[in-house]
Design brief:
The protein is mainly beta. It is built from two helices and five strands, in the order ββαβαββ. It has a five-stranded antiparallel sheet.
């Protein structure tokens, strides 16, 4: 599977409701970030956690967020960032 997003592209983390093992932190859902790099393609950890080994690999991205986007009352430097690795099904195009 080829990556849907490119380095430098702005994305929004989907607000999917998901039970069980979820690798995407709740606090980052709905936040806007920028693709910093494409890390490769891997099987989804949500499936692997339950012993389901079938399925295709999906792209994994490192996404950079401004700290103030994540935490509106953040008191640190204005250019502080947070990088998270997120799988493509959790990302949406920024419209």
């Amino acid at each position: 599977m080829s990556p849907r997003f490119a380095v430098g592209e702005t994305v929004v983390v989907a607000e999917h409701q998901s039970a069980g093992h979820v690798r995407t932190p709740h606090y980052i859902k709905g936040k806007r970030g920028t693709i910093e790099r494409i890390c490769g393609a891997f099987r989804r950890p949500e499936e692997l956690a339950y012993g389901r080994w079938e399925g295709t690999a999906v792209p994994l991205y490192r996404v950079r967020f401004d700290q103030r986007e994540v935490w509106p009352d953040y008191a640190g430097a204005a250019d502080d960032t947070l990088d998270l690795e997120l799988y493509e099904p959790w990302l949406e195009a920024d419209r």
